[in-house]
Amino acid sequence: MVFRKLLAATAGAFCALAAGPGVASPCTDQIGALEARLNDTATTAAAASSGGQAVAAAREGQAMEARDQNRPVSPPPAVPFQAEGREAQATQRAAEAGGGGDRVMQAKATLNRARSFDAQGNSQGCMDAVEEAKRQIGN
Amino acid sequence: MSARTLDAAPAGIANVSRRGLLAGIGAGALVLAVGIPPAAEAQQPKGFGADGMPNGWRDDPKLFVAIAEDGTVTVTCHRQEMGQGVRTSIPMVVADELEADWSKVRVAQAWADEGRFGNQDTDGSRSLRHFFMPMRRVGASARAMLEQAAANQWRVPVAQVRAANHVVTHAPTGRTLGYGALAKAAAELPVPARDTLRLKDPSAFRYIGKDATGLIDNRDITTGKAVYGIDARVEGTLYAVVARPPVFGGKAVSFDGSEAMKVPGVLKVVAIDPPAIPSEFQPLGGVAVVARNTHAAMKGRDALKITWEDGPNASYSSDTYRAALEEAARKPAKVVRNEGDVDKAMAGAAKKVEAEYYIPHLAQAPLEPPAALVRIVDGRCEAWACTQAPQVTRTRLAQRLGIPEDRVTVNVTLLGGGFGRKSKPDFVIEAGLCSKAMDGAPVKVTWTREDDLHHGFYHTVSVERIEAGLDASGKPVAWLHRSAAPTIGSIFAADMKHELPFELGMGLVNTPFAIPNIRAENPEAQAHARIGWFRAVSNIPHAFAIQSFVAELAHAAGRDPKDYLLEVIGPARIVDPVALGDVWNHGEDPKRYPIDTGRLRRVVETAAAGIGWGRPMPSGRGLGIAGHYSFVTYVAVAAEVEVDGRGRLSIPRVDIAVDCGPQVNPERVRSQMEGAVVMGAGIATSAAITFKDGRVEQNNYDSYELTRIDTAPREIRVHLLPSNDYAQPLGGVGEPGLPPVAPAIANAVFAATGKRIRQLPIRDQLTA
């Protein structure tokens, strides 16, 4: 938790620097808030996916597919690496973590685009990108 | 490899069935593990690393350690041995903490039971990364129980006794008791709580971090006693081979087995249904021939008359598919990493460089092809298989055969190589279906080399396009990388057309370069073959492209490639992988496993120093370098190549430097690095799987060329970066040596000849 707060604080500090002294915009604040959330979801995705190639591939594949098709993960899991219910739960957790993290990656990339706009003083471009990132992550 | 009857296999040699293990221990022995202890409470997969794996980990000594009356310690290894030495390294960790005399340690192979042993799926370069600490606790717990048993017997405070080298000593009086004499009493004691355990100070390690321990299976392997999957045999074994659809997604629409049945020794022809989609680990379907011996089964298969329907991948061709990938890589695509403003920086760059790299399908091609033996007796199924994934093998066998899982036993043999192929249990299920068709008789299904190359789970094929903008000094200010490759996810989700986050986290999105504007994109790529993981997985194409391109940039900038690589890596710093957009991080906690560019720099510098970077080279010789971070380990390779006047390539020397954190078994780390260099040389120079009309064009090692003795690097020097702080996290070892090998060789070829290699394998590109 301490680390996550640190990340959020670091991200916030970076945002402030990127935007230039004294020019923190409403978009800067939104970037900071969304970034903290994305970072938290990213670490959840890492844990939910797992370090095994077989498990990661099965969970992420199903999670991404479910997210792309805007539906819950269909039980049973593709491969019951453990008790079916438990593996289905794990896959669902991966899906909830931005479609196995896929949406988080995209949203982080979009958020960085917002950051560039913000640094350029393009507030509309920044807000549009923030909104796009929010849509990517699902709200 | 020798044929060997499993029923006669002595316990603890190379592999042992569950029944054999228990019988062996019970034969006149008093044991720490009495009978079958209750399964430890399952760990909830709630965290990172081993905590996040199905069925987690166990550290109950009663599950892993048995001590016989004569003092023989049997350690059960729950990870699978495929040449990486895990059957030595895991027991070594236990033995060290146990203060066992290694000469009295035996190893038993665990059967499939993750409820009992914790996660057994041996992939991801994580056996020691995930189980070093649990196995230390196993040994420390057992040691504490022996000490307590001695203290009880002597009626002295436990603080006055110490276990060392298989003996417990009462310091004030000098009394001693051997482990065998204490085993029974120790077994009756409760397992100490984790927080009371006294782990050894690393300075007291006897085996961990030392080079003193040889492979436990060496003698059996070299004398032919070791049992591999292909050796498995029980009384009454029948033998089968399978004719599978030549095109992935195809099926047999009809067949005539009458001629096959006329082959002497053939007993039955068995239809196997095609898989449902997504196909995951299911058999491909087809027609099996069961016979009294493998030769008859093969002859019978040759006599089958089968009408195949090739299905949706009938027109899959490597040439046209490459063009499709190239087209995809030249268009904007899904953005998976973005920092700064690449387009703006690119537009303002003093110089622009772009390149495309092509990496073909590969086959794991283990020396031992897939093989499995299954029998079904009285409603119980028993299998012997060279599987990396025993638990999922058990589950899938149970489901396909309609037998409750608790009536299915999977015994694991040694694996004659795995490289990811043997994570998939399709071949075991085939044997199960054949056994079922033969009323439960034991049937061994053998894959020929041709079967393995024609019907595999192939490493993906990839086009990697990179563009960079350089400033006036030649420094990169913009970097755009598009990676187009069909995904492993396609075997688990039918419509999956993008690489999965874990594939992108293998050297694409998490490349820690100090470039202010970076974008990574991932175009769609439809899979037309069965894609599976291969040693190091997506790190292979990503590292090849990125490390080749850095060298191209160095050339464009007129700079030394090593210095340029270090400049692109940037100063030593700790990088949060999440900040780069990596949402996988090998399943590890980003806080515990950040990316340390200082470590990456050090391996590059070490490899360069090792090979004598910068020394004058004669005509036709050149040095190349590459560094890559994967499986939370840092590896750099410096290669020296020679290209003669006829374009023939040889590799006089390779220096490989590795920083995998604390080393448990340095001899094995060196061995894995050497193996990676040899395998990587094959990927660089000769290996490729190609498709035409949906069919694999290679048949055997004559056309799928692995590194041969005359093409292997003549000298390999491994540099282990020292790390003796065992509180630090361990990195992987089995896979991370591979990715930087091919680009280092390709870069050396450029240095030697001026010819840039952008397509693997090199093959005859130097003679053209």
Overview of this protein structure:
- Chain A: Keywords: Signal.
- Chain A: Residues 45-58 have a biased composition (Low complexity).
- Chain A: Residues 45-103 are annotated as: Disordered.
- The complex is a heterodimer of chains A (139) and B (768).
- Chain A has one domain.
- Helix content of chain A is 75%, strand content 0%.
- Chain A is built from six helices and no strands.
- Chain A has helices spanning 2-19, 26-49, 53-68, 84-96, 102-119, 123-137.
- In chain A, helix 2 runs antiparallel to helix 5.
- Mean pLDDT of chain A is 85; it is low at 1-22.
- Chain B is an alpha+beta fold and 768 residues long.
- Chain B is built from 21 helices and 30 strands.
- Chain B is globular.
- The two termini of chain B are 41 Å apart.
- Chains A and B meet through helix 1, helix 2, helix 3, helix 4 and helix 5 of A and strand 14, helix 12 and helix 15 of B.
Keywords:
heterodimer; A: 139 residues; mainly alpha; 75% helix; elongated; disordered N terminus; B: 768 residues; alpha+beta; Aldehyde Oxidoreductase, domain 4; 3 domains; five-stranded mixed β-sheet; 21 helices; globular; signal (chain A)
Q: What layout of secondary structure does this protein have?
A:
The complex is a heterodimer of chains A (139) and B (768).
Chain A: H1 2-19, H2 26-49, H3 53-68, H4 84-96, H5 102-119, H6 123-137
Chain B: E1 4-5, H1 18-26, H2 61-64, E2 65-67, E3 73-77, H3 86-98, E4 105-109, H4 114-117, H5 127-154, E5 161-164, E6 167-170, E7 175-178, H6 179-187, H7 218-222, E8 232-233, E9 238-243, E10 251-256, H8 258-261, E11 266-272, E12 286-291, H9 294-303, E13 305-309, H10 318-329, E14 334-339, H11 342-347, E15 351-359, E16 371-377, E17 380-385, H12 390-401, E18 408-412, H13 426-437, E19 443-446, H14 449-454, E20 462-470, E21 476-484, H15 501-504, E22 517-522, H16 539-557, H17 561-569, E23 574-575, H18 577-580, E24 595-596, H19 597-611, E25 621-630, E26 633-643, E27 649-659, H20 666-685, E28 691-692, E29 695-696, E30 715-720, H21 741-753
Parallel strand pairs in B: 1-8, 3-4, 9-19, 17-18, 21-22, 27-30
Antiparallel strand pairs in B: 2-3, 5-6, 6-7, 9-12, 10-13, 11-12, 14-22, 15-20, 16-17, 16-19, 20-21, 23-24, 25-26, 26-27, 28-29
Helix pairs in contact in B: 3-5, 5-6, 12-13, 16-17, 16-21, 17-19, 20-21
